[in-house]
Amino acid sequence: MLDYEAVGKGILIDLDGVIYQSDRLIAGAVDALDWIRQQQIPHLFVTNTTSRSREALLEKFETLGFSAQIEEVMTPVVAASQWLDQHQLHSAALFVPAGTKQDFGDIESIPLDQSAAVDAVIIGDLGEAWDFRLLNRAFRFLMQDPAPRLIALGMTRYWRGRDGLQLDVAPFVKALEHAASCEAVVVGKPAPAFFESSLARLGCNAGQTFMIGDDIVGDIDAAQRCGIRGIQVRTGKFRDADLGGAIKPYAVLDSFADLPAWWAKNVAKN
User: Which DSSP string do the residues of 225-241 spell out, in sequence order?
Assistant: First the structure.
């Protein structure tokens, strides 16, 4: 056991690009996760993934060769449900994959082919399902009077799939903001509210917490703006040019697999 106080030091861990990439594990990532658990370091998986429910994510983990508890997974859908409840909004047009809708709990989901009034229009990652007709349906909901709230399940610009970089949710949200003259409420990364909710679940304050991610903007910069120390990994969507800009990570690792050695040198004795 390393010589450090586990209580108070916590880790937020991105998934795609850090633990796995698409359907392939990052080499050594599972061993590093096992080490975190052995050291009893508080940790939480924080992901902008909206293409799967949390249960489906756990099933994917098992297929890849590791496991987690559902309470250890923080998604934008969880944050959105909390936000809707706090603001007493009860109905929504859900532009999310069918399997993700189960994580919205008691929110009334209005069929997208209807013109019924809604409290919110929620935009997630629909990938190649997006087309003009679907985007226009979201626009028409937003043009109702009174206008519903536009909620973005994150503002990730793109991600890396098996065949290269792919657009994520942000470009579609920006199109709707422009067309409907509104501003989205962002409940996933890089919104401060997402990190604040994650810290509350983790039970650590920002200054005691590290965020490990592959996105220099959505993971590292967003976390550091909240006082969380960002650790950039050179996997996933990372490009060498990311380190040439104004955003300076607290640390840079070749891979999540390098975390135990880095922690022993830089954190354990502090």
Answer: HTTPEEEEESSTT--GG
pLDDT, averaged per 10 consecutive residues of the chain (270 residues), comes to 47 96 93 96 92 91 93 92 91 92 88 92 93 97 96 87 86 97 93 90 93 96 96 96 96 98 85
CA atoms within 13 A on the CB side of 94: 24
Residue 98: is it exposed, middle or buried by C-beta count within 10 angstroms (0-12/13-18/19+)?
A: exposed
Q: Where are the alpha helices (DSSP H) in 65-169?
A: 76-86, 132-142
All domains in the chain, ordered by first residue: 10-40+203-266 (3.40.50.1000), 76-186 (3.40.50.1000)
Considering only CA atoms, which of 61, 122, 139 is closest in space to residue 87?
Answer: 122
Write down the pTM of the prediction.
0.80
41-65 as b/e: b if 16+ CB within 10 A: bbbbbbbbbbbbbbebbbeebeeee
The Cα–Cα gap between 227 and 247 comes to: 14
